[in-house]
Amino acid sequence: LMLLLLCGFSFYLGGIYSTGRTFTFSSTTTSIIPIVSTAKQEGSAIALAIARNGNGDDEVEFSECPADYQDYTPCTDPKRWRRYGNYRLSFMERHCPPPPERAVCLVPPPRGYKPPIRWPKSKHQCWYRNVPYDWINSQKSNQHWLRKDGDRFTFPGGGTMFPNGVGAYVDLMADLIPGMKDGSVRTALDTGCGVASWGGDLLARNILTVSLAPRDNHEAQVQFALERGIPAILGIISTQRLPIPSASMDMAHCSRCLIPWTEFGGLYLMEIQRVLRPGGFWVLSGPPINYENRWHGWNTTVEAQKADFDRLKKMLASMCFRLYNKKGDIAVWQKSLDAGCYDKLTPVTTPAKCDDSVDADAAWYVPMRSCVTAPSPKSRGKALPKWPQRLGVAPERVSVVPGGSGSAMKHDDGKWKAAVKHYKALLPALGSDKVRNVMDMSTVYGGFAASLVKDPVWVMNVVSSYGPNSLGVVYDRGLIGTNHDWYALPLLPTASCSTLCSTLPEWN
């Protein structure tokens, strides 16, 4: 009976984790080497993934996916949305297909794909054939997000709330938030980012932004951001926490992102409150800001917009925010550094203070909670060093890493400096304008990204959802990243990274 149970359990696990392919290796030391053949069969390339052991006699062949898979993102696939409910747009969240439905093929680039235009020119233009999205061009052309010009898309830097260009918009914002000029503000979140022009402008100001937008039923808008060389991920504030730890962002921003901030008891505001650092800023432009002058174009009444603005201010005040500054279309709130404000909240007040039953940093498939996240007692009243000094300072959260300490982080940085020097000898393009978007597939302290911080490249640091959650350390150092479990890669669309870098400190 025991033998039958074990066999049945083994068969069950095999059904869950099987990819539909069989790999037979005669050695425990195996390397997977992807090779794209130059041979063509009816216009389609044959791609090979060779698994080599000591004898080099094992190989597995993967066919190329159909041409209509060029925009395929497995866990945010519009073809599967009907299976999920419409409640709070939860169908746009991450839903990975079960093993039998997973595509086991190599996703092709769009026809006519060319190497991307190099940074910094790519900030303002990209090849049309690399992101052949006509729908968004026709729908957003009046807002000056992008414009098709021959064989390219150009990005004028416009937007609904910044008709004079994103540069002028951010200049006004920097006047309202002096910390944007002195290194106090380093990490930012842009919700409903569109083509990420706001995050792109901030790069020149030494502010690193995670631009966030959902995959809609036509195209993934963040594909434009990644093609331009601007950090971005697919995502939506809906029912699950964002894949970001608490107290990570110095600033969060919404420019008419159409998120109903005052609905559901302020639940979405509570998620912004969770990811902002104490002392961090929340910036809002669009309804209901400047409703006195803007309500005519919002298909509403001035009374309704005033009521919404009053309700917004009241909710934010109850969550320990204060109205920091306001001018024209932009309003800025600051998350309180005062511990006394959070001490007044309890699990039974309105709003409630979160209890300790769920880690505030846990964000991988964790439902959002209708409560306010109080800052850690260790971090109360403490501000992080300004950028770039914070990059080399071990934060309080380094202690969550097993064996973590300031000396361990410093040692890790030293190993990565040597590793990156070796990488550049093997791959001279790394560190040049030929490589712009890089993913570190399994980071701990962000040492790989730190070693490249002076190069024209940005690194998306990925921390496994199965191990210790060290992502807070990455953000505290002034870097960006996300959690992931690596069953699939739904946070980045097709052909969005120049290099995939696996964290292997023992690089030699």
Description of the molecule:
With 508 residues, the chain is of the alpha/beta class. Among the domains are: 121-343, Vaccinia Virus protein VP39 (Rossmann fold, 3-Layer(aba) Sandwich); 389-501, Rossmann fold (3-Layer(aba) Sandwich). Helix content is 23%, strand content 19%. The chain is built from twelve helices and 17 strands. The strands form four sheets. A seven-stranded mixed β-sheet has the order 9-8-7-10-11-13-12, sandwiched between helices. A four-stranded parallel β-sheet has the order 16-15-14-17. Strands 1-2-3 form a three-stranded antiparallel β-sheet, with no helix packed on it. Strand 5 (147-149) and strand 6 (152-154) form a beta hairpin. The longest helix has 21 residues, at 406-426. The protein is globular, with a radius of gyration of 24 Å.
Q: Tell me the radius of gyration.
A: 24 Å
CATH architecture of one domain: 3-Layer(aba) Sandwich
Largest sheet, order of strands side by side? 9-8-7-10-11-13-12
CATH-assigned homologous superfamily of one domain: Vaccinia Virus protein VP39
Element order: H for helix, E for strand = HEEEEHEEHEHEHEEHEHHEEHHEHEHEE
How many DSSP E strands? 17
End-to-end Cα distance, whole Å, is: 49 Å
Shape: globular
Helix content: 10-25%
Write the layout of secondary structure elements.
Layout: H1 2-17, E1 31-41, E2 44-52, E3 60-62, E4 125-127, H2 134-140, E5 147-149, E6 152-154, H3 166-176, E7 187-191, H4 197-203, E8 208-213, H5 222-228, E9 232-234, E10 249-255, H6 267-275, E11 276-285, H7 291-294, H8 302-318, E12 321-327, E13 330-335, H9 339-343, H10 406-426, E14 437-440, H11 447-451, E15 458-464, H12 471-476, E16 481-484, E17 499-501
Parallel strand pairs: 7-8, 7-10, 8-9, 10-11, 14-15, 14-17, 15-16
Antiparallel strand pairs: 1-2, 2-3, 4-6, 5-6, 11-13, 12-13
